[in-house]
Amino acid sequence: MTTHAVFNGVGFAAHDPDIWYPVGQSLGTRATAWRSRFATTGFLVEPDADGNDRVINFESRIEKYAIEALAMDPSIATVIEQAPCVEYYDHNGEWHRHTFDCLAIGTDGLRTAGAIKHSKRAAKSGIYETVRSIAAQIDRSIADRVVVMTELDFSSAERANAELVHEVRRHPVPAHDALVRGVVAEIIGSVTVRTIADASGLPAADGFRAVVRALADGVLRLSSPGSRIDHETRVRRA
User: Fold this and answer.
1) What does the pLDDT read at residue 175?
2) pLDDT digits over 213-228, tens only?
3) How far is C-alpha 219 from the chain's CA centre?
4) Which residue in 39, 107, 118 sits closest to 79, CA to CA?
5) Measured between alpha carbons, how far is residue 154 from residues 70, 119, 143, 163 in Å?
6) From CA 63, how far away is CA 162, in angstroms rounded?
7) Which residues pair with 104 in a beta bridge?
8) Could you tell me if 8 and 25 are in contact, meaning their C-beta atoms sit under 8 angstroms apart?
9) pLDDT value of residue 86
10) What is the C-alpha to C-alpha distance for residues 2 and 14, in angstroms, rounded to an integer?
11) How far apart, in Å, are the Cα atoms of 41 and each of 15, 36, 38, 57, 63?
12) What pLDDT is recorded for position 7?
């Protein structure tokens, strides 16, 4: 994940830390509710399927976790927040509109609309019944499937990895990344993050961050999917 400073619609882009580039605006179908007494709101800036940076808003910490985790998933090409907006009949035959918290578009084109709720509130909110009604009626051109997601759907390792990537990609160092990619090109089999960082010749912290960026960019992959990224985590060339 990448967060950039944004000023008058322009952001600090990862591919050149010395140049400012335009940032695309949110693709959400409704405006974000920025003022809330009970939820964390904010925005991230993420590359879209074409590699162009785009604003992604979130209205709760759980939405932020989900967006970060989905963005780390190599099978997901694009995440659009506050989309899609759909119309449906409930079990009483009454007509409603519902806006999903996110639409995840896979590299295979599969479109998944997600309602993101805290597990302690999901059942009481009636969201499961709402999603079941929508699933039976939704046009497949809008979404191939609809799901309810809670924090329980993301492991502690997934959340930790997503936040780590979010942080290190804020401060790219192309020269460091090039050194690590050179080491990665020579890898045979599985090695630790520390091994690659040491082989790069960089200071330990800089080497570690560059290896994490290589994981985020798909140059490396975890040898054991779902493991938490640290110095002793084993990785292999993608």
Assistant:
1) 96
2) 999 888 999 999 889 9
3) 17
4) 107
5) 10, 12, 22, 12
6) 13
7) 79, 112
8) no
9) 95
10) 8
11) 27, 8, 10, 8, 9
12) 30
Q: In the beta sheet, which residues pair with residue 221?
A: 236
Max alpha carbon distance in the chain (Å)? 66
Q: Report which residue type is found at 56.
A: I
d(CA 18, CA 1): 19
Residue whose token pair is 């050149």: 16
Q: Tell the residue number behind the tokens 């209205």, with chain if given.
A: 59
Strand intervals (E) in 17-125: 20-22, 42-47, 53-58, 76-81, 85-89, 95-99, 102-106, 111-116
The token pair at 197 is: 């960082």
Amino acid type, 12? F
Say how far apart CA 2 and CA 18 lie, in whole Å: 16
The C-alpha atoms of residue 119 and residue 104 are separated, in whole angstroms, by 20
Going by the DSSP 8-state scheme, the letter that residue 227 receives in this structure is P
Alpha helix stretches (DSSP H) within the chain:
61-72, 119-125, 127-137, 156-168, 174-184, 193-200, 204-216
pLDDT of 70 reads: 81
User: Which are the contacts of 229, defined by CB distance < 8 A and separation ≥ 6?
Assistant: 160, 161, 164, 193, 212, 215, 222
What is the 8-class DSSP label of residue 93? S
* DSSP summary character for residue 24: B
Residues of the chain with pLDDT under 50: 1-14
The whole-angstrom separation of Cα 138 and Cα 98 is 11
